[in-house]
Amino acid sequence: MPLEGEYEPSPQKWVRDQVERYEATGGREANTLRDTGRPIVVFTTRGATTGKLRKNPLMRVEHDGAYAMVASQGGAPTHPSWYHNLRKYPDQVTVQDGPEPWDGVARELSGPERDEWWERAVAAYPDYADYQTRTDRQIPVFVVERTK
User: Fold this and answer.
1) Which phi and psi (to 5°) does residue 104 adopt?
2) How much is the average pLDDT of 128-138?
3) What angle do CA 94, 113, 43 make, to 5 degrees?
4) Nearest in space to 94 (alpha carbons), one of 19, 31, 39
5) 44 to each of 50, 91, 121, 138, how far by Cα in Å?
6) In sequence order, which residues have a C-beta less than 8 Å from that of residue 45 and are 6 or more positions away?
7) 3-state DSSP call for residue 77?
8) d(C-alpha 135, C-alpha 139), whole Å
9) In the chain, what is the straight-line distance between the N-terminal and C-terminal CA atoms, in Å?
10) Per-residue pLDDT for 1 more than 70?
11) Would the pLDDT of 137 be above 90?
């Protein structure tokens, strides 16, 4: 059952608009990152500070039914806000890749497993490799798997 609670739309207009259109059409529209043509997935997390629901369109990196969430923030020196949401509430994430959202549990990856998922992420969206060169932090990668 998808997360429940008050939804706090993104302060970024393009994110708000994309999420709204994606959800309204069951993922038939607004399903790529701007003009890249690369597919996205909408992730819903619970805000670490506010407890409100936050929705983020991220690159679609899927393998065997699990999805990666790459905390790149375009190579910024700090993690995106949703990183902190997952750290506090790893069991409160919903994945929507198409019309039907599903609940999952996230875990931050390290070691060889992170390397494997990082390769998948870069294959799905090559700009991730460039983003890593822009920052001193290792870009975190989470994997989200269905709640059993």
Assistant:
1) -140, 175
2) 97
3) 15
4) 19
5) 14, 11, 19, 23
6) 53, 54, 56, 82, 85, 86, 89, 92, 93
7) coil
8) 8
9) 12
10) no
11) yes
The predicted model scores a pTM of 0.96
Pairing between β-strand 102-108 and β-strand 40-46 as defined by DSSP bridges: unpaired
Task: Summarize pLDDT for 76-129 with one digit per residue, the tens.
Answer: 999 999 999 999 999 999 999 999 999 999 999 999 999 999 999 999 999 999
Cα–Cα dist 83/77, whole Å: 13
Domains detected in the chain: 13-146 (2.30.110.10)
Q: Which residue has the tokens 């991730």?
A: 128
pLDDT at 17 over 70: yes
Question: What's the rounded Cα separation, in Å, for the pair 40 and 27?
Answer: 9
How far is 145 from 94, CA to CA, in rounded Å? 10
Q: What is the pLDDT of residues 36-83, one digit of tens each?
A: 899 999 999 999 999 999 999 999 999 999 999 999 999 999 999 999
Spell out where 85-137 has E strands.
93-96, 102-108
In angstroms, the Cα distances linking 22 to 17, 19, 101 are 8, 5, 12
